[in-house]
Design goal:
This protein has 9 helices and 10 strands. The chain is an alpha+beta fold. The strands form 3 sheets. Strands 2-6-4-5 form a 4-stranded antiparallel sheet. Strands 1-7-3 form a 3-stranded antiparallel sheet. It is globular and about 55 Å long. The two termini are about 30 Å apart.
Amino acid sequence: MLTRLVLNQRPADLTPAEREVLRAAITEVREYDAQELVTPAHRPLDSSVLLLEGMMARFVEDRRGDRQQMVAVHVPGDFVDLHGYPLKVLDHEIRTLTPVTAAVVPHRKLNVIQQQHPDLALKLWYLTMLDAAMHRQWIFRIGRLRAPARLAHFLCETNARLSIVGLSDGCQFDLPLTQADLGAICGLSAIYVNRVMRQLREQHLVSFHGYRVQIHDLAGLVRLGEFRADYLYFNEDVGRRVTGVPPL
């Protein structure tokens, strides 16, 4: 089912009936290549995108339009631009990182869900609150953690998110980001990221093989990154599995 990963393994998980209502709201499934623009900034929107396969990211562009800052990474099951439903226009753009399959949900269909299925509408709001929680952690990561801890935190977060959608076995996953991308995410230069990656390897925490990440010591990586899964709002057993500590 197209909606099977939405709020998967979270307390606000959708019921089978709600998943069917959401599936019926999908009017189109689209395929995108890697590095393709999906949702432009500053243009009126009349639909939102549910990510089914692949990875996407949000970018904020500078005034000259020649540099972009990555501000979020999205995995399957994410309703990537659901906040565009009330806003009607985004202040950032959304691009693919890998080849992507995405479902299109027109805002007129979301109007119907809001009017006729208030419990489902509340759970969709829950999705946007998860986005906000992750944004807060990205700010915390850059503002309070030292360089190695920043990368460790991001890797723990990504591993946790990919684990619940079947794209990580808990210790290895593909991460289609360059060192420059990781630098932007962690507030570091690409050269410094290379140094930090080497430190994590030398501490036998993580190794990198192209875009493949291999975690050798998850507990150690969690400690270094001061990572807790509470802000991801997983079910308790999932939070314990991806960090060794249950969520709040």
